[in-house]
Amino acid sequence: MFILAPSILAADFCRLGDEIRAVRRAGAQYLHIDVMDGMFVPNISLGVPVVASVRKGTDMVLDVHLMIEEPVRYAEAFARAGADIICVHAEACSDLKAALDTIKGLGARAAVSVKPGTGPEAILGVLDRVDMALIMSVEPGFGGQAFMPEMLKKAEFLADYAAKNNLKYDIEMDGGIDLSNIARVLASGVNVVVAGSSVFGADDPARAVTGFFAAAEGLKP
Questions:
Q1: Which of 63, 170, 174, 178 is catalytic?
Q2: Domain ranges (residues) in the chain
Q3: Which of 4, 58, 70, 220 has the most other CB atoms within 10 Å of its CB?
Q4: Which residue in 9, 119, 96, 76 sits closest to 111, CA to CA?
């Protein structure tokens, strides 16, 4: 099942509620929320209060991506704020398994992410305890970057690994995805697509969402 997760990092925060409702009506199932601490990545973005506010206004799945050092420190706060999925970076956790188990224990879905320079082998030991694996197809920290096609090999690897080991987890990709590359992204095994600039940066975010779904529908045999 194709799931679209528009990233609110690219939204107009003066009109955030309206824009969220527009993409929800157009069929987007998730909202992707990037949390940056200025340490793990060279930028500062959203935090717990934003997640709590968004939770009050929508029933969409809140996919919270923690690009912060030792993210388990804030797992409970984000779970209480309404995060449905909490994603941590393998590179940011001193004890990745414990972090993921903590997230699961809070009742949220646990996800793990890797930067472009980290191979998928780094997370093989935790794929039996995650609900989703997120592949960054740009360097994390800023929106609007160009898609890195070499990251598709990671998705293929993770899809093949799941099939061979009878594991079930979603494969998400984030960074530079638009209608020019969505076909290659989905063909690689990705089923959850994060789109920031290509949705909220469009003149009509709702129309952008329907464009993604039309493209995905056109790929079905």
A1: 174
A2: 3-218
A3: 4
A4: 96
